[in-house]
Amino acid sequence: MKFVMPGGTGQVGTVLKRALSAAGHDVVVLSRHPAGPGEVRWDGATQGPWAAEIDGCDVVVNLAGRSVNCRYTPANLRQMMDSRVHSARVVGEAVAAAGKPPRLWLQMSTATVYAHRFDAANDEATGVIGGTEPDVPGYWGYSVGIAKAWERELESADTPHTRKVALRAAMVMSPDRKGVFDVLLRLARLGLGGPVAGGAQYVSWIHDRDFVRAVEFLVARDDIEGPVNLAAPGPLPQRAFMRALRAASGIPVGLPATRRMAELGAFVLCSDTELLLKSRRVVPGRLLEAGFAFEHPEWPQAADDLVRRLRGRAVG
């Protein structure tokens, strides 16, 4: 099959392209800065010659969007919104105009669309959409707004011959350099892998191989459309998450951090505390109901596997 992946040069795109190419599929990446074979230039906002790649392909996986690992300044938040909305809009226009449209459009979304909560898990049927929670920073609602606007572009696109799925993805954990797992492991090795602000906030995640398998599952199943949570069924509090990561990597101690310390650390790292402090308790209701079996449903075993693979690459 031919897959077209707008914005496929980041961590998630690298994971997916590697696996799909190894499986024998033709993968074309749309990038603002194409750097090699199989990469085609686009600007993420306007139509162009790149649209010819979508005409006749089998699956579009739109991953485009400015990284959320940044300071949440008004300018950066606007770029995060615009890069997602504009790219989804032009992909929809290209799909609509195709003489032979793809049969499936997988549109990246985010588990951040759900509310900050501790009492119950969010699945697709009963989960609470965020944005109006009390006692959280007001700007957290902007991240939810980004996710909702992202998904609206998918829903409103006039593509009657193309099935559409919004991938409400949790953090994808892979052993790749500069990915989220690499960042968390480096913090743990610096002794900073303890609970943050008490560590009760939930962390939702998905192992990279389960992420790929879930995408393949959605490609094969023609009866699933709409939002799908791509998250392991075992979210856990941040303090337990980091404890398991330390155990997998042989790090005995992780210093705790207060909210104020987290704010200072995020400032130094040019990041934002929402990524650390929001409780994302998300579970994959639709995948489980459809019969998808996770190879890595629980974090301690997943962390063991990721550390082992990371060390194997370092030895190699």
Describe the structure in your own words.
With 316 residues, the protein is an alpha/beta fold. Helices cover 41% and strands 14% of the residues. β1 (2-6), α1 and β2 (26-31) form a beta-alpha-beta unit. α7 (238-249) packs parallel to α11. The two termini are 31 Å apart.
The rounded Rg comes to: 19 Å
Helicity, as a percent range: 40-55%
User: How large a portion of the residues is in β-strands, by DSSP E?
Assistant: 5-15%
Strand segment tally: 11
How are the strands of the biggest sheet laid out side by side?
3-2-1-4-5-6-10
State mean pLDDT (0 to 100 scale).
Answer: 93
Shape: globular
Secondary-structure topology with pairs:
Layout: E1 2-6, H1 11-22, E2 26-31, E3 39-41, H2 51-54, E4 59-62, H3 74-97, E5 104-108, H4 140-156, E6 163-169, E7 171-173, H5 180-189, E8 202-203, E9 205-207, H6 208-220, E10 226-230, E11 236-237, H7 238-249, H8 259-268, H9 274-277, H10 285-289, H11 299-315
Parallel strand pairs: 1-2, 1-4, 2-3, 4-5, 5-6, 6-10, 7-9
Antiparallel strand pairs: 8-11
Summarize it.
The strands form 3 sheets. The protein has a 7-stranded parallel β-sheet with strand order 3-2-1-4-5-6-10, with helices on both faces.
